[in-house]
Every structure is written in C-alpha cells, then in structure tokens.
Inverse folding.
C-alpha cells in the first residue's frame, strides 16, 4: 500500500482520521477528529468536515456551482461546505459548497444537496433525495427516498416529506424571469408519498397532505387534505 | 500500468477475473470465475460474487448499514452480500450487505438495493430504482427506472412495476413507532407509471393498476383499477 | 504526484487538458482543447470529447449497452459517444455510447443518458434526470430534476419538462412484444411537475400540462390540461 505522502492529501489530516483507498482531499480542507472517509471519495477545496463525521464511498463533497448559458447564475459568495460533527454521509453522494449540514444529520446514498442550503441538526435526507439551491430545512425533519425539495423552499422543524414527493418553484415553467419561490412547509406537517406541491404554496402547521395529492394553493393549519386538486377531508 | 500486487486487492482473485483500474477489493471477498469489474468500483469486506458476474464502473457493493440517532436500527445479522452467477450490475450502483441477488438478475445504473433484501432470478431492477430494506422480490419481475420499492414489501414472481412508481410503508409518517409494512403485490400484477401505493395494501394476482393511480386499499385479483383514489374500471 | 505517464491515459491528451486525480481514459478517446475532467472520472473507449467541455467528478462516459436474458437487445451500431464543444457534465453522471450531446448542453449531477440518444444544443438535463434509449431531444429544452424521459420518445425544441415528470413507452407493460413508443412532445410545450404521460401520446405545440396530471390521450395545440385523467381547462 502507498503511504500517506504518496496519496493525494493536499491538506493536513489528523492522525485520528480513517481514510479509504483512492481518497482525494484537495487543498484548504479542514478535517476534524475521528473522521472516516470511504474509498474513492473526493473532498474538494475549502470544505470543513467536523469531528466524528462518517462519509461513505465514491462521494463528491464541496462542489462549486456550474451553469450553462441558459441557466440562472447562483450568487457567488465564495463560502465553503461545512459539515458539522456527527453527520453521516452515504455513498455516491454529491454536496455543493456554500452549504451547511447540521450536527448528526444523515444524508442517504445517491442524494444531492446544492449550494446555499442549510440543513438543521438530526434531519434525515433519504437516499436519492435531492435538495436544490437556496433552501432552508429545519431540525429533526425526515425527507424520504427520492423526494425532491426544490430551490427557494422553506421546511420548518419536524417536517416529514414522504418518498417521491415532488415540489416546484417556477409557476411560469421557464417562460418568464422572476423570483422563483418553492413551497413553505410549516412545522410538524407531513406530506404523503408522491404528492405534488406547486410553486410558492404554504402548508400550515401540523397539516397532513395525502399520498398522491396535488396541492395547488395554500393549506391551513391542523387539517388533512387529499386528492387532485387537494381538498380538506374528514379523518 | 501497476501490476496486481500494487493494486488494492486484499482478497484472492482468480486468474480469470478482468478487473478495471482503481478497483478496490477488501478482505474476505470471494470472486467466482470469469468475473468482470469496471474501473473505480469497490467490493467491500465479505461480499461473494458468483461466476460470470459483470459489474460496471464506480459501484459500491457490500455496504454495512448506517443510521443516525433518529432512525430505526437494522437487525445486525452479520450476513454478507451474495451476488449469484450471471448477474449484471450497472454503473454507479450501491448494494448493501445481508442481501441476495439471484442468478442473471440485472441491476441498472444508479440503482440502490439495501440490506436484508432478496431478489429472485432473472429479475430486472431499472436504473435509479431503489429497493429498501427487508423486502422480498420474486423471479422474473421487472422494476422500471426510478421506481421506489419501499421497505418491508413483498413482490411475488412476474410482477411489473412501471417507471417512477412510488410505495410507502409508514401510515403514521414517522409519528408513531410500529411495525412498518409495505405493499404486497401478488404474482403477475402490473403497476402503471407513477402510480402511488399506500402502506400495507395488497394488490391481487394479475391485476393492473393504471398510470398515476393512487391505491389506498386492497385490490382484488384479475381487475384493472385507475384514478385517485383508484377504482375498478371496465376495460 | 504521479506524472502523466504513470496515470491511466491510454489515449493522446492535449497539453491544454486539466485532468483530475485517478482519471481513467481508455484507448481511442479523442479529447479537444481546454477540456476539464474531475477526479475519479472514467472516459471509456472510443468517446469523443469536444473543445471546452467540462466534466465533473466520478463520471462514467461512453458505456456500452448491456442486457440480461429478458431484456430487448439494443441495435449494435458500434457508434461512439460524442460530446460537442462547450457542454458541461456534472458529477456522478453516466452516459452511453452511440449518443450525441449537443453544444453547450448541461447535464446535471447523477443524471443518466442512454444509447442512441441525441440532445440538441443548449438543452438542460437536470440532476438525476434519466433519458432512455432511442430518444431525440431538441434544442433549448429544459428537463428538470428527477424527470424521466422514456425510450423511443421525441421532444421537439424549447420543450419544458418539470421535475419528477414520468413517461412510459410500453402500453402492455411487458406482456407483449411490440414496437415501444414513448410520448411525442411538440415544440414549446410545458409539462408540470410530477405529471404522468402514457405511452405514445402526442402533446401539441405550446400546450401546458398541469402538475400531477395524467395524460392518457393526445392533446391538441395551444391549450392547458390538468387532472386525472387530464382534461382541458380554461385559464
């Protein structure tokens, strides 16, 4: 086996780190104590990895945003990716720069989290779930497998997003340039699997949206809605 | 090129194996005859790969389950991943330990299969499809692209799951602790694309669920259902 | 660091290329000027990468199709993957051979594009979106995150596909062998998030399909449809 100096660690790594084979650590990366990083994972320039963080295999962390000619540019704020202590990152995960992952957060395999996102402590982001840019997610949320959290959204604390939930943030579907707005989901609400939330809708506190529902307008607190379009039901 | 001893093969590899560049094979891995493994793929400790298995590039196979503080722990049974002969595993795939992949199974690119899963011979798991823990899938099933097979589910033989089908297994959406139960889909049934199945529903034999339907209760054998919620239709 | 000769470049690489660590470039690959390739990415045999193309980390490009016993074989035409100038490919992306990616196309992280696909100039394929085989996509299209573009489909120019849109191409769901046919989406149409399109439907020009709609038959030009099944609405 190659010794440390022959691997591709361009930053200082604490002795307590356990690093897999073919790990790449670019420069200006900070690694806390007792960090584990799986094989073939890459930590890009400037990222900060807290104590006791566990990262799986084949991950790419700290990605700089990129666009083509037709895409809106993200604000260039030169911030780094920060992953707080005790977080667990799965395998084949991508996470962007300018994003903050809270303490003891779990990010599942194949998930992707974009730039300018904050994820509160102990929140779970399921496997293959995607969190787009400029979104704030509270503490103790559960975002299940293959759920799609669009950009410019707010999820308050203790929100549950079922598998395959879909959200959108552009009511003109690319036809006009305006300030995109995703859903605002208030604390304690639960969204059933494969439900669809339209741009800018607000879901009240402790409200339940049924599986497969299509939410086209704001929903009040403490009720249950279902159907296409979603309407209040007695439970 | 590096010779074998300088690569990261910590188990004994048959001469008949064709291994890509940057492949990592951890210890206690068993590799059959005529196995092909693509570049940058990792086979984790204890996995068993049968004869004539073909594995793509950038895969992670044999992953140990991990959880955060708020997630249920998986039963620790210390079993290994077993991939039987003739299976084809795509690229950028993740598969967990304690899972058995049958003969001539096809697993598409970007797919993920979790722990304590069995997949019957010749079944197809489409690209980016996800199979969660404790699920049994029969023989000759087709699970299409981006379909989500939740945990604690049963799919009998010859089941067809269309693309983007969504299932769930937790009727309280995280609010109570109970024995989670996914759908039970009986032999020969077909589920249309983007349909939603609620926790614990049974789909009868040779029944057809239309595209986009939301199945909220058990469905009898040999019928066709569609709509939100799904109802029997004449065909 | 290793020098170029000790890396795994089996083709001739221009001096202007910026290549990450652990990059694998197989033989008969053509690389244009000013190409950037991230760490751990693999360019498979015969691929052609145009000038100024930027490729992220952990990608697999130029994959040969593979099937199991129960899958239809793809036409073996021995064509290569061609990525035209200025395209940007994200991280953890898979793209097959016999496919042509147009100029300045953007392919998001975790996306997959199969064989015999053409993607027109400046089109955006969102993260974790999947484009299946034998599909033609025009110029200036936007295919959003987690959208599923099935095989044998046609998307004309300026089409907008919202996040999590689902399409299918097999009306018998595997029960019969026939010529599969995906949707034909005419120019300027917009499909809302999580809508479902059935096999072979035609969506007229400049038509809008609402979020969560299920399109079961052809839709005329210049109208808006919504609901399950989708019907014309006044807007």
């Amino acid at each position: 086996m190659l010794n440390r100096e022959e691997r591709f660690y361009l930053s200082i790594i604490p002795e307590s780190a356990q690093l897999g084979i073919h790990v790449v650590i670019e420069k200006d990366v900070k690694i806390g104590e007792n960090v584990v990083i799986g094989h073939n994972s890459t930590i890009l320039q400037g990222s900060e990895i807290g104590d006791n963080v566990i990262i799986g295999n084949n991950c790419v962390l700290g990605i700089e945003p990129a666009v083509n000619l037709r895409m809106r540019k993200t604000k260039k704020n030169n911030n780094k990716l920060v992953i707080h202590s005790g977080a667990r990152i799965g395998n084949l995960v991508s996470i962007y720069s300018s994003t903050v992952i809270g303490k003891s957060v779990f990010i599942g395999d194949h998930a992707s989290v974009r730039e300018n996102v904050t994820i509160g402590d102990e929140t779970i982001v399921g496997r293959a779930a995607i969190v787009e840019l400029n979104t704030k997610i509270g503490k103790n949320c559960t975002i299940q497998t293959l759920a799609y959290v669009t950009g410019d959204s707010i999820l308050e604390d203790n929100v549950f997003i079922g598998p395959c939930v879909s959200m959108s943030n552009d009511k003109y579907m690319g036809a006009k340039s305006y300030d995109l707005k995703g859903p605002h989901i208030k604390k304690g609400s639960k969204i059933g699997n494969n439900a669809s939330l339209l741009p800018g809708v607000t879901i009240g506190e402790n409200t339940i949206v049924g599986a497969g529902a299509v939410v086209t307008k704001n929903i009040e607190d403490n009720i249950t809605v279902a159907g296409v379009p979603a309407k209040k039901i007695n439970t």
Remarks:
- The two ends of chain C are 62 Å apart (CA to CA).
- Confidence is low (pLDDT under 50) at residues 1-6 of chain C.
- Chain C has no helices and 32 strands.
